[in-house]
Amino acid sequence: xxxxxxxxxxxxxxxxxxxxxxxxxxxxxxxxxxxxxxxxxxxxxxxxxxxxxxxxxxxxxxxxxxxxxxxxxxxxxxxxxxxxxxxxxxxxxxxxxxxxxxxxxxxxxxxxxxxxxxxxxxxxxxxxxxxxxxxxxxxxxxxxxxxxxxxxxxxxxxxxxxxxxxxxxxxxxxxxxxxxxxxxxxxxxxxxxxxxxxxxxxxxxxxxxxxxxxxxxxxxxxxxxxxxxxxxxxxxxxxxxxxxxxxxxxxxxxxxxxxxxxxxxxxxxxxxxxxxxxxxxxxxxxxxxxxxxxxxxxxxxxxxxxxxxxxxxxxxxxxxxxxxxxxxxxxxxxxxxxxxxxxxxxxx
Length: 348
Prior knowledge:
By secondary structure, the protein is of the alpha/beta class. The chain has helices at about 25-30, 55-65, 110-120, 140-150, 160-165, 175-190, 210-220, 225-230, 235-255, 270-290, 295-305, 315, 320-335, and strands spanning about 5-10, 10-15, 15-25, 35, 75, 85, 90-95, 100-105, 130-135, 200, 210. The protein is elongated and about 90 Å long.
């Protein structure tokens, strides 16, 4: 007879599926779990994707740095000879300690990372994780849970934690995370002029490399950067500013049917993106701050591009990247400077 452990638990039912949630040691969860990959395993509940080694190693390093997980690991008990005993009256579960008795529904990469970390530091095995255990799910039931977690929910942007808790100085990755989060918004927001045009690693197509977006934005996102100086420190405001700015530029090119023309539109090239960010942070943001207005309409009013003012790829095609970037910035600034009054309008 298998040895068992007692755990205090919370017994709930979600969408018709009974779940027991409790804390257990990492070494016990690692010993007990296994992965049933879809397309490979024919057993019920086989919904998992194949492990990604890079992700597992990243989690291992994360754990070895003293980090843990607050979100639950979802396991489905499939062992037929030994079964958990749930005592609802005392909110307790008696769990047989049987190897590979429960398949992973959610958390396979985290468990694999924990297992690798535990191999290098056995003390990690005595730390605890939160487990939600189901019993003998069918494949449709397991798929329902898996899809709910991986499709219906969207991960919170990494850099949002800095807006919530104000912790920025201690994390060297803050600026990279923030720039990545803005790039993701530009790429995933249907209203963004760069919707599906940012080329993330592993993405087959795109106009602007992620590295271009990150390197362009990073200097301006630090505590001494342009955004912070104008009290635009939150992710939400920074995303809105960027989308409004490029929407304003796009509107002028849309009038001529040029925005989506990669052969004509310089803003779909690295130099165009970086040059326009230079213009935004060096010149336009201050104008918007003075008027307390960062709307698309106000930015259009400031930029004032028209048919004669549209720069095209023909204007920068023969230039090196650095010169093209400066040319695009100066072109935008020339139209912004058009707002300066004539000397006859000044009072002395």
